[in-house]
Design goal:
Elements: H1 3-21, H2 27-47, H3 51-67, H4 73-89, H5 97-110, H6 115-136, H7 139-165
Helix pairs in contact: 1-2, 1-7, 2-3, 3-4, 3-5, 4-5, 5-6, 6-7
């Protein structure tokens, strides 16, 4: 199996974790699924030769793991600094900004206590990753981000209608 095919298989496994992540009410479950998913995507991007995206995904996996146990702003700023340093070190071209902006948005999202803010900022970051995946030519990663964004919107809608109807 060549590196491209393996990268797409790993992205497909990540897909399953991503689409289910925001359908849990407990923030810790969502973050643990995202930790696993981003770990797989780090390998995916590495196999595609996208070192900046791979590095940012490794940072993201660590970020989600830490965000499960703390919402302290010092942790958020530390991960943002790490993303900036990683991007500066692995900079290739102007398109390297997309993974950086995605990472910064998702870092900010991870350390939000409110589920709606977690979803909203993650959705914005996901759209940046979607554009990056189109540019690097990873069809499975494009499908993953489309499904991930759709899943966030579906969960957001589901929980907002539950709150309006008075159900728990």
């Amino acid at each position: 199996m060549n590196a491209f095919i393996l990268s797409q298989v790993l992205a497909g496994m990540s897909f399953l974790l991503d689409v289910s992540a925001f359908h849990f009410q407990r923030r810790a479950i969502t973050l643990s699924l995202l930790t696993s998913s981003t770990s797989l995507l780090a390998i995916h991007f590495y196999l595609l030769g996208q070192s900046a995206a791979a590095g940012l995904m490794i940072i993201a996996a660590c970020r989600y793991a830490i965000a499960m146990v703390t919402c302290h702003k010092w942790a958020m700023w530390g991960f943002m600094a790490g993303s900036l340093l990683c991007s500066a070190w692995l900079w290739r071209d102007i398109w390297s900004l997309l993974p950086l902006v995605a990472s910064l948005l998702m870092t900010f999202a991870s350390f939000q206590k409110q589920r709606d803010k977690l979803r909203g900022y993650t959705l914005c970051g996901s759209l940046c990753w979607l554009l990056n995946n189109v540019i690097v030519g990873s069809p499975v990663a494009v499908v993953i981000e489309l499904a991930f964004s759709g899943s966030i919107l579906a969960a957001w809608w589901r929980y907002s209608t539950t709150r309006r109807s008075g159900c728990v």
